[in-house]
């Protein structure tokens, strides 16, 4: 997060000589980081309640459980893909993605 990086920068400056910054600047940024973290956690919770598995927040990677001949498989999508095109076995992960045509 951008706010987290800025907060760390401010903490380093304040820990040094202060650099004209107050501890309230750091606290304000910490509050913003905490708010954004809570927002993300709420979104992840809402997504998982729909049955979707959030695999990697940084990449925007999610899996959708499905069945193939009675066996659970995962339909796989990540940010930047315009539709779900891949799947993988429950024990394979992203590296084992295969085109849906093979499903």
Give a verbal description of the structure.
It is built from two helices and five strands, in the order H-H-E-E-E-E-E. It has a five-stranded antiparallel β-sheet. 41% of the residues lie in helices and 25% in strands. The model has no long low-confidence stretch (mean pLDDT 87). Strand 1 and strand 2 form a beta hairpin. It has two domains: 48 residues; 50 residues, no CATH class. The protein has 103 residues and is of the alpha+beta class. It is elongated and about 65 Å long.
State the end-to-end distance.
37 Å
The total of helices stands at 2
In helices, the fraction of residues equals 40-55%
What series of H and E elements makes up the topology? Answer: HHEEEEE
Q: How confident is the prediction overall: mean pLDDT?
A: 87
Strand order of the largest sheet: 1-2-3-4-5
Largest sheet: 5 strands, antiparallel
Give the CA-based shape. elongated
List the uncertain runs.
none
Strand proportion, as a percent range, falls in: 25-35%
What is the total number of structural domains? 2
From the alpha carbons, calculate the radius of gyration and give it in angstroms.
20 Å
Secondary-structure-based class equals alpha+beta
Number of strands: 5
